Automatic annotation (TrEMBL):
The protein, known as: Glucosamine-6-phosphate deaminase
Protein encoded by which gene: nagB
All residue ranges annotated as the Glucosamine/galactosamine-6-phosphate isomerase domain in the record: 10-236
Part of the full-length chain shown: 22 to 269 of 637
Length: 248
């Protein structure tokens, strides 16, 4: 893992958006689709803001972009304001020229009966495109990437999981109380993420300092799933001063 540390998350996010824009444009010149793995939550908001600006002010086109989101709560209706479907449309998709059929977000409304096959199909669809060109990640205080909570297998694929208590605590405020936070989610696996050609993980603020230290300096273990990124040869952690403050 290679880390870069910035004074502000805003400045950092602008550079990450620029890297994504460069990949989109390079792929466009090759007449190929650009396959992006995307995250939700507070960490990527400014990256999406800058991508929207690049689209509106500098002509960046999303016509050749295909997206796969990491995760969605389960069960969850996409029209619900807490859904990751809603988040992605609000922060990115409604403001750029991506084709609706190129947007992939796990369906939090799939029936229990169809869930397992649905996850296998999601995984196969990523593979059919030749894998992810770029994967954007945040990190949870449990060490999750996507919703791969402690115990996740290094080769795991897209599947349903049970959220950790701490993850539900952290989500409680946006759900107006922990009792409203779903207990499960659908997530891309550690294996899915690790197959991406390029990975950028964003970490902002003091609340992430301890897990960032464990992830970068700790031993590789399913107890901190993000440590599996140490085995990926093209991963950068983009941090602000606070999130990097525990690093030696
Ligand atoms: C969301 C996701 C999660 C978040 C993580 C950090 O799609 O995959 O792993 O990235 O929970 O969330 P924030 O950015 O809100 O601190």
């Amino acid at each position: 893992i290679h880390n870069v540390i910035f004074d502000s998350s805003k400045e950092a996010s602008i550079l990450v958006a620029q890297e994504i824009a460069n990949i989109i444009q390079r792929k466009e010149e090759l007449n190929e689709p650009c396959i992006l793995g995307l995250a939700t939550g507070s960490s990527p908001i400014k990256v999406y803001e800058e991508l929207v600006r690049l689209h509106k002010e500098e002509g960046l086109s999303f016509e050749n972009v295909v997206t796969f989101n990491l995760d969605e709560y389960y069960p969850m209706d996409k029209k619900d304001i807490q859904s990751y479907w809603y988040f992605m449309h609000e922060h990115l998709f409604n403001h750029v020229n991506i084709l609706p059929q190129n947007i992939n977000i796990p369906d939090g409304n799939i029936s229990n009966e169809d869930l397992q096959q649905y996850c296998i199909d999601y995984e196969m669809k990523i593979k059919a495109y030749g894998g992810l060109d770029f994967q954007l990640l945040g990190i949870g205080r449990t060490g999750h990437i996507g919703f791969n909570e402690p115990g996740s297998h290094v080769n795991s694929g897209t599947r349903s999981i049970t959220l950790d208590h701490l993850t539900r605590v952290d989500a409680a405020s946006s759900f107006l109380g922990i009792d409203n936070v779903p207990r499960k989610a659908i997530t891309m696996g550690i294996g899915t993420v690790k197959h991406a050609k390029r990975i950028v993980l964003l970490g902002w603020g003091i609340s992430k300092a301890e897990i960032i230290k464990k992830t970068i300096e700790g031993e590789i273990s399913s107890r901190v799933p993000a440590t599996y990124l140490q085995q990926h040869n093209n991963t950068t952690f983009v941090l602000d001063t606070e999130a990097s403050s525990e690093l030696t």
